[in-house]
UniProtKB/TrEMBL annotation:
It is a multi-pass membrane protein. Pfam families: BCCT. Keywords: Cell membrane, Membrane, Transmembrane, Transmembrane helix, Transport. The lineage of its organism: Bacteria, Pseudomonadati, Bacteroidota, Bacteroidia, Bacteroidales. The chain crosses the membrane at residues 18-36, 56-76, 103-126, 153-174, 194-214, 226-249, 283-301, 313-338, 367-387, 408-427, 439-459. The keyword Ion transport does not apply. This is Transporter.
Amino acid sequence: MSEALTTIQNAIYKNLSWVYILLVSFFLIFLLILAFSKIGNIRLGAENSSPQYSFFSWIAMLFAAGMGIGLMYFGVSEPMSHYVNPALPDMVNPAKEAQLATFFHWGFHAWAIFAIMGLILAYFSFRYKLPLSIRSGLYPLLKERINGPIGDIVDVFALISTFFGIATSLGFGVVQLNAGLVHLGILSKSSFPFQSFIIIIVSSIAVTSAVAGVKKGVKRLSELNLILAILLLLFVLFLGPTTFLLGAFSEGIGYYVNQFADLTFNTFAFEQNGRGWFTNWTVMFWAWWISWAPFVGLFIASISRGRTIREYIFGVLLVPSLFIFLWMTVFGNGAIFLDTHSAHGALSALAGNPDILLFTFFEQFPLATPLCVLAVLMIAVFFITSADSGILVMNSIATGNRPNSPKWQTILWGILLALISIILLRAGGLRSLQTMTLIMALPFGLIMFVLCFCLLQALRTDQLYHGTKIPYGSRNWDGTRWKERLDQILSFSQKRDISNFIKEKVHPAFIELQAELAKKGVNASIIEGNRGGLSIELFIHYDRIWNFRYGVSAEAQRISAYIIDENNTPDIKNARQYIPVTYYSDGRTGNDIQYLGKDEIIADVLREYERYLSIMADEDKAMMFVDKKEYKK
């Protein structure tokens, strides 16, 4: 199975690596467009809702559930690996390029994958009142069919992806934790019984935390982990080459920003000798982050109620990325600096053994043992936070996001997670499972692409809904003839109704106004059917400026299927209705005047005519309405 899956993965990476690059680039650009547009003001929840967690707690949980354990595993090993084996052999400054590649793999692009998934889930759950599940993101496309087989398939796919992703991470991570305990002398050697014992302990604490819920267990552990991470970071920063590290961080940020566009779209099409590095690192990371998107996205969504889309996007993209940049600089560049100045190549020699590399790095510092103890503690807590948040997400998917699912079900997921991890660790199947997870990332990435367009359609509907104003005819209504108005509200007009409206209200109003204008020396005409259908307009001709037009035409509108299927609504026999809408000489969007009486229509025409004449009288505005065709003659 391992050989077969590896063959499939290599074929995908070789022939479809560009798909991963375009997908991740699209996710990042899409998020930035949303953040800088008016859509960014939309809140993930009701308009009057507020965030359920403080900013610190929110960021701590993002950090712990997203990449926390990966930082401990790759913080030293990835920059060192790029330094020893750079993408291109002729690189002038391999240390600087190693930092850039690490920033790229763990920065904005990676968090964009998590952010887009979390945004889709949070929006449809908190704004549309749908379950917090991936199927909800397909609502604009499938409508009620999301509750059918297609929705089940999508959620089962996400459930399996989440379960296998956490299981493989738990299996690989326990190896590093075991290595750290051996390094400290707590355990005598790395062995399967010790590793199984560690998994059981970590899983037991994770289940206890998950049963306690997000507000108690996960939140407190995440805050503890972030505090420990900051302490470890500060220790290494101030015990190591501080001036060099701070300078490298500043220069690294600038270099990353400068190379951002090239990094985003680079596929090494013109540097074939770098293709192996590209697929083994960049494409692998993009596939890995996409495969983790259901898990991390669901967890981020569950803790982000009440934040605006803009706050959510900038928070998820910027804060964890900047912290990770500092982390990778302190640990990665710190290791490279020590390797060349004092370790005499001892660290670079272990570039292929990340399990022990972190602890060997700490041995280069004065307080080596306390640093190793703190690192082991952090790895353990990161394991627990990844596992307990994963258990909560899997339980949420499996129960359809029901609020009061039984606790035994949460416990069951924790037991299954530990059991599968132990079995795979014993059978040697972790690599195969990881490979299968990475293969599944391609179809799920395409599903995420479809979900983005579903989100865009839903956001457009959201803007239209919240931008809808009180009907034009009701804005200054004084409440007279309210029974007649109620009949109009509860009916959906057809063409014959618009014909009667024009005949009984609009035409008499135009006739009366035409007669009064004639007394003032203004010659107005009434034209019917000028728009190729049911229409009427009051027309005043001018020689040098645009003619004045106030017209009314029948505009067709489709009636929503939602209201047609309701019982407590008027009897609707036709899925299409017609409304009388005004139009003007300058092409402005007209108004629905179906609720206006004859005198109100006259008043509306006079408002438009007053506006027209006031513009004509203003030298700065009148040029707009000059009839240019007359000047051409």
